[in-house]
Amino acid sequence: MQRRFVSIWFRQLLADWQLIRRPELAEIPFVFAAPDHGRMIITASSPLAAAAGAQRGMRAADAKAICAGLEVLDDKPGRAKKLLQGLGEWCIRYAPIVAIDEFGMDGLLMEVSGCPHLWGGERPYLKDIVSRLKSKGYTVRAAIADTPGAAWAISRYGTITPIIEVNGQAEALLPLPPEALRLDEIVLARLRKLGFYQIRSFFNMPRSVLRRRFGEEFLLRLAQALGTEAEALLPIQVPVAFQQRLPCMEPIRTRTAIEIAITKLLESLCPSMQAEGKGLRKGVLTGYRLDGKLVQVSIGTNAASHSVSHLFKLFQLKIDQIRPGLGIELFILEVTKPGDVELPQETIWTEKPGLDDNSVIRLLDRVAGKVGAEVIRRYLPATRYWPERSVSNTTSITAKKDTEWRMDMPRPTELLATPAPIEVMALIPDHPPRFFRYNGVQHQVVKADGPERIEREWWLDEGEHRDYYQVEDDKGRRYWLFRSGHYGSEKQFKWFIHGFFA
C-alpha cells in the first residue's frame, strides 16, 4: 500500500482560538505577545492586526504606534502546543497516526494510508477535514501527498490542487520557494543571496555541491520531501496493534444501531486477533459525536478472548452508559491490552473443569461488567506460617497456586485480618481459657481443643510463637483463640481472638 500523508496548517491558530472564546474581538485588532530580553515581542496576530502591519516578531510597542486601538494579550509558553494536542486528538477520528508539526508549531501531520476510502476517496476526505475544522472557527489549509514534507510544502506554499498524485511530489515541489523545504533562516538567506527563489533553481545541481554550500540538513529536508529519505512521525497517541473503525453514513442515536455497530466492529476485529493467536483482555469503544465530544466505554476479561458473541455481551452491558447526543458519526474499537489465547487441552473425560471451564470465565466477565471487576476476589494459598499471611489475593483467574491449602488442621470460616486482644482466665499454664472477654462480652468456655503451635517466620522478623485453641462457649459458639508467647517468660504473654467457626 502506498503511504499517504496529510498536512493541516492552522494559518492563525492562536487568533482563531481567541475569537472562538471571545467573539466580540472580531472587530478589534489584537495580538499575542511574550517577554523577550525585557521587551514584549508579538508571537501571533489577528487578521485585522496583521492587515494593519502588526506582524510576528515585532515589538508590541511599535505595533501599537502603527495600529490604533490594538489590544495586546499575554501569550503563555506552550499554549500553541497544547491547542495542537487537543486538535490532534480530535483528528484521530480521521487517521490513527496524528502528530504535531514541531517545525512551525502551527499544524498537524497525519499518516492516512488506507483511510480516505472510508469517506469515498481523498478529495471528499480532505474536504470533510477542512470543512469540519472551519466550522469550528479555524482558518486552515490542508494537502495530501506521498511524504510529510511534500504535504507540508503544498499546504503552505502550493497554488495548485492540494491533492498530489502518487509519485508526483517532485513535480509539485519545483515551482515552490525554498521555504517550503522547512529550512532554517541562515540557509534561506544563503539561497536568496545566490538567486535561488524556486526549488527548481537548484533541484538538478550535484548533491556534493549543495552539501558543501548549504550543509547536510539541507539535503536531508530535500530528500524527506521527495521521499528518498524516510521521515518518522511522533504520534500524539501510539496506535494499538488491534483497532477497527466504523464511520456511519448517518449519525447513530439508538441502542439498536449501537449494537449493530459493535457487532460489525467485533466481526472485523476478532478474526484478525484469532489469526495471530491473540485475544482481548481490555478493550475501549470510542464514539465520536457530531458536537465534537467523545463517549467511551471499556470492558475487561479474565482470560484473553476473540469470541464475537462473548465480547458483544460485555459491551452490551455498557451501552446504557453511551450518550449519543445529536448522534455518533464514527466508532473506533481498540484492544488496549491483548493477550495470548490459551487453547484448552482436549480430554475424553472431564470430571471437574473448575475455573478452567470457559463458561465459568465468561460468567465472571459478565458479573464484572455489571458490578465492577474490583468486587470480585480470588484467594490463593501462600507459603507462610501465620494464618493472616497464608492467603494471597489475585485478580487473575488463570493464576496458578504455588502450594496447596492446609487441610490437616481445622481452620475458621471467618478470619480476622488483625487478631483482636481479649481478656482471659486460665487455670494452669498451657491450658485453654475457662472464660474470655471480647468486645465487653464475657464468654464461658465449655469445650476446648489444642494447643496448635504456629511459629513466627524467623527469617522475616523476631518475636513470640502462637499457641492456638479451638473453644466453644456455653451458647454453642466456637472461636479460634491463641496465646502469644509462654507463661513465665520474661516478656508478658497476651491472648487474642483470631477467627470464628461456623
From TrEMBL:
Q: Which family does it belong to?
A: Belongs to the DNA polymerase type-Y family.
Indicate yes or no for the key word Cytoplasm. Answer: no
Q: Report the source organism.
A: Pedobacter kyungheensis
Q: Which InterPro entries match?
A: DNA/RNA_pol_sf (IPR043502), Rev_trsase/Diguanyl_cyclase (IPR043128), SulA_CellDiv_inhibitor (IPR050356), UmuC (IPR001126)
Which GO biological process categories is it annotated with?
DNA repair
The protein in question is named Nucleotidyltransferase
Domain called UmuC: residue spans: 8-155
Report which superkingdom the organism of origin falls in: Bacteria
Q: Name one GO molecular function term.
A: transferase activity
Keywords (A to Z) from UniProt = DNA damage, Transferase
Q: Does the keyword Calcium apply?
A: no
